[in-house]
Q: What sequence folds into this?
C-alpha cells in the first residue's frame, strides 16, 4: 500500500469520525428524557389556573342562582298573598246591581280586561273629568 | 265646555246630602291634594260613620301625597330619586310596579322615568309656582337607558334615572279610596279628572261630565274608572315657547300634534289614566288605537271636534 492510499483511508476515516461525532452531539444524549419545553409548562400552568377559576365562578353562579330562586319564590308568594287579599277585599264589597265594585289597580293589560259599562247620558253630571 | 259641576263645595268640608231616597243621599267631600281638586261622593245615610269614612279619604290622599310628591324633599319618591336605591314602602313599590307594567304593555308610551324631561320642559316646581324666565335645561337624551328594578323591598334606579309618578298616583289613590268607601255604599272618587267608581247609586250609573269644547257631554259610569289626558291644561310658557306636561318618551319633550284631550273608561282609574296617556301619545292614530283596544273613549281633536270611539254611544 502506497502512502497516498493510506492517506486516503485516513482522510475518509477522519471524515466518518467527524460525522459520527457531529450526529452524537446533535442528538444530545446527555439531556434528560422527561424534560419538557418551558412554553408547554407555562401553558399547562395556565390551564390549571383557568380550571381553578372556572370552578370558583361556577360556585358563585350557583350560589347567586339559588339566591335568585329563593327570592323569586318569596316574591311569587307575596304576589299570591296580595292577590288573595285583593280577592278577599273585592268579596267584602256588598253586592250591588250588575257591575258594581271598582276593579283593583291591576297590572294586567288594560285592553285584556273587559271595558266597564259606560254610555252617553242626558242626566245632570255629579262631577267632571278633564286633563289635570 | 261642559264642565258644569253640581254645586261645588268648599275644600275640606263635608257637604250636605244633595239628594234623598229612603234616607240615603250623596255625601260629598271636596278638598285640594296632589296639586288638584279631589272629590269623594258616597251614597249613604248621613252619619258619623259616613263623615269619618270621607275624612279618611282626605287623610289617605294626604298620606299618599307625602309619599309621592316630587316637590317635597322628604317624600319617599324624592329620597328614591336622590339616592337611586332605597328599601321602599308598600305603596311606592306597588305604584312603581304598576307603572313598570304599564310601560311594558304600552310599549313605552307610558313611562314613569320622565322626571328629568318634565323638569327640562320647565315643570320643575308646583304648577302654580312655575316661572317662565327660570333658566332652561336641556332635555335628556331619549336614547338613555331607563332601568328601574324592584327586588323584594328594594327599588333601584339606573344611573341618572329619576321617577315622576304624578300621573298614575292620582288613579291609584282614587282606586284605593273607592275601595275604602265601597263597604258603606256606592261611591265615586275623582282626583282631578282621574276617577274611580264603586257601585251604582240608586238613581243609576254616576253621570260624569267630560270636558269637551262643544259640549255638554256626560257619560254614565257604572263601574271602573275614567281618566282624561290632554294638553289643554297644565300649559305654561318657557322662554316664549308653549309647553305642556305630557312628555313623549320618544323625544323626551312635550308631545306635539295629535289630539287635544283623550278621555278613556277602563276597569280602574289607574288603568284609565295609563290608557288615556298612551292613546294621547299615539298622536294622529289615537282614534284608531282606541278602536283597536276596544276602549270606550272620547277624543277631542286639535280643531275642537269630539269623537266617541271604542264602542261608546
A:
Amino acid at each position: 500500500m502506497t502512502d497516498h492510499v493510506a492517506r486516503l483511508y485516513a482522510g475518509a476515516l477522519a471524515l466518518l469520525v467527524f460525522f459520527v461525532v457531529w450526529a452524537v452531539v446533535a442528538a444530545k444524549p446527555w439531556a434528560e428524557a422527561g424534560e419538557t419545553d418551558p412554553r408547554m409548562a407555562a401553558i399547562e400552568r395556565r390551564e390549571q389556573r383557568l380550571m381553578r377559576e372556572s370552578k370558583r365562578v361556577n360556585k358563585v353562579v350557583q350560589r347567586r342562582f339559588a339566591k335568585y330562586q329563593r327570592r323569586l319564590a318569596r316574591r311569587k308568594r307575596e304576589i299570591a298573598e296580595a292577590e288573595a287579599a285583593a280577592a278577599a277585599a273585592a268579596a267584602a264589597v256588598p253586592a250591588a246591581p250588575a257591575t258594581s265594585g271598582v276593579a283593583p289597580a291591576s297590572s294586567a293589560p288594560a285592553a285584556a280586561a273587559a271595558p266597564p259599562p259606560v254610555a252617553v247620558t242626558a242626566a245632570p253630571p255629579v262631577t267632571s273629568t278633564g286633563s289635570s | 265646555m261642559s264642565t258644569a259641576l253640581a254645586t261645588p263645595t268648599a275644600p275640606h268640608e263635608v257637604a250636605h246630602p244633595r239628594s234623598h231616597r229612603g234616607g240615603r243621599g250623596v255625601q260629598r267631600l271636596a278638598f285640594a291634594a296632589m296639586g288638584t281638586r279631589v272629590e269623594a261622593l258616597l251614597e249613604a245615610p248621613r252619619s258619623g260613620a259616613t263623615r269619618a269614612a270621607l275624612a279618611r279619604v282626605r287623610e289617605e290622599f294626604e298620606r299618599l301625597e307625602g309619599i309621592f310628591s316630587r316637590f317635597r324633599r322628604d317624600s319617599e319618591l324624592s329620597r328614591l330619586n336622590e339616592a337611586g336605591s332605597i328599601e321602599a314602602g308598600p305603596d311606592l313599590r306597588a305604584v312603581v310596579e304598576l307603572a313598570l307594567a304599564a310601560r311594558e304593555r304600552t310599549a313605552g308610551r307610558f313611562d314613569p322615568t320622565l322626571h328629568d324631561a318634565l323638569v327640562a320642559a320647565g315643570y320643575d316646581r308646583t304648577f302654580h309656582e312655575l316661572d317662565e324666565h327660570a333658566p332652561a335645561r336641556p332635555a335628556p337624551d331619549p336614547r338613555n337607558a331607563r332601568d328601574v328594578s324592584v327586588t323584594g323591598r328594594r327599588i333601584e334606579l339606573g344611573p341618572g334615572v329619576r321617577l315622576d309618578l304624578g300621573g298614575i298616583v292620582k288613579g291609584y289613590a282614587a282606586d284605593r279610596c273607592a275601595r275604602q268607601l265601597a263597604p258603606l255604599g256606592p261611591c265615586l272618587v275623582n282626583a282631578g279628572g282621574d276617577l274611580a267608581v264603586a257601585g251604582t247609586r240608586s238613581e243609576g250609573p254616576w253621570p260624569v261630565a267630560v270636558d269637551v269644547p262643544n259640549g255638554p257631554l256626560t257619560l254614565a259610569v257604572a263601574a271602573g274608572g275614567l281618566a282624561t289626558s290632554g294638553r289643554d291644561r297644565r300649559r305654561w310658557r318657557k322662554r316664549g315657547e308653549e309647553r305642556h306636561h305630557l312628555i313623549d318618551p320618544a323625544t323626551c319633550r312635550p308631545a306635539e300634534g295629535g289630539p287635544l284631550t283623550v278621555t278613556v273608561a277602563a276597569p280602574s282609574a289607574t288603568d284609565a289614566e295609563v290608557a288615556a296617556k298612551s292613546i294621547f301619545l299615539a298622536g294622529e292614530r289615537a282614534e284608531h288605537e282606541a278602536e283597536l283596544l276596544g276602549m270606550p273613549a272620547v277624543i277631542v281633536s286639535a280643531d275642537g271636534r269630539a269623537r266617541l270611539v271604542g264602542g261608546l254611544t
